[in-house]
């Protein structure tokens, strides 16, 4: 079993944790196999120092824009064609991103010219307000009195939830407060008519989406990956959600349910196209008409890895019986 420092409450770490709690209640001995912490390479350290130094130089917001695009650097780079379309149609827009490395900066300067970096918009006033609010919450220690009727007689589970809340307040809440205050500043100054996000419902996007709705700003999000089974926290919260194709919409609506949320209404799901994949250049390798190309898309599940690997092996073995087969395996984006 493994856990990840500062893991969000909704993260996949809850799966092994649930197993651990069940085993503890049954008095079953559990051994932990922690991941080895790799030493940070010198290049990475230098890169982070350069990044931090860049964040010292603050940016100034310019008022008014019809569209605000919020996207992480990798997605933003993949969306360069989409940004060109905005320029050609003379759409008034602003680009907001975060965690920009020096390598991304060089590419963005060439592709976009002007863009906003969230970290360079966080001023001393925001930091002071966030620290004060976080301090008050830490002093309150609300997690000590937390209770839940369903598990009232199961002390192990209640203690676990309290510990999880405490870790969340200590390690994540301060940053969330900073994000909230920064979103207030950005949306209050730019006053866009439409907010376009790429990673809805990721926490980096949710802060802006929630505030935009309060300010009566329309919200729109792009599909940025494919879900083939229901995921407890995958439903977007934007006013409209653009999928890549008719098949994508059909697939999304088939898995459009969670344990905590209602179905996303069909009228909120719009058919568009992917803004990410046009940048892929055609392969120079020769294509043979008689050759069967198979692209296997998969997200690696760290829990029950042995069982998943078994069925993957069964699949690959069955495909090897086919003549002239070319098999390409691609995992989920964040595992590349």
Describe this structure in words.
The chain starts with 13 loop residues before the first helix and ends in a 5-residue tail after the last strand. Helix 9 (246-254) links the parallel strand 6 and strand 7 (269-271). A seven-stranded parallel beta sheet has the order 3-2-1-4-5-6-7. Strands 8-9 form a two-stranded parallel ribbon. With 336 residues, it is an alpha/beta fold. Helices cover 42% and strands 12% of the residues. The protein is globular. The chain contains ten helices and nine strands.
Secondary structure layout plus pairing:
Elements: H1 14-25, H2 42-56, E1 67-70, H3 73-78, H4 80-88, E2 93-97, H5 102-111, E3 116-117, H6 124-140, H7 155-190, E4 194-197, H8 203-214, E5 218-222, E6 240-243, H9 246-254, E7 269-271, E8 292-298, H10 305-319, E9 325-331
Parallel strand pairs: 1-2, 1-4, 2-3, 4-5, 5-6, 6-7, 8-9
Rg result: 23 Å
Distance between the termini: 23 Å
Content of β-strand: 5-15%
Mean pLDDT: 78
Helix content percent band: 40-55%
How are strands sequenced across the largest beta sheet? 3-2-1-4-5-6-7
Q: Report the order of strands and helices.
A: HHEHHEHEHHEHEEHEEHE
